[in-house]
Specification:
mainly beta; two-stranded antiparallel ribbon; 4 strands; 26% strand; globular
């Protein structure tokens, strides 16, 4: 499997409403941190996640987190 593109070395911290979202795992989306289909033709697929209520989240932008799609601090080692 190929390596993802590191979009940024800090997470995207945002307030999201309840719903289902698709996190970009390849790093190529122009709609970071969300998928826009740029992974087509690669080994990557978006990661779906659902929030039951409005919540502040820190979504990984370096794409190497061990807790996809959420930041786990892995960017500090890059």
């Amino acid at each position: 499997m190929s390596e993802p593109v590191i979009f940024d070395k800090k997470p995207a911290v945002m307030d999201l409403d309840a719903g289902t979202y698709y996190w970009c795992s390849c790093g190529q989306s122009s709609n970071q941190p969300f998928c826009n289909g740029s992974h087509k033709g690669t080994d990557f697929t978006p990661i779906a996640f659902t929030l039951d209520e409005k919540k502040t989240v820190a979504l990984c932008n370096c794409k190497v987190t061990g807790n996809q799609p959420f930041c786990d601090g892995s960017h500090a080692k890059l």
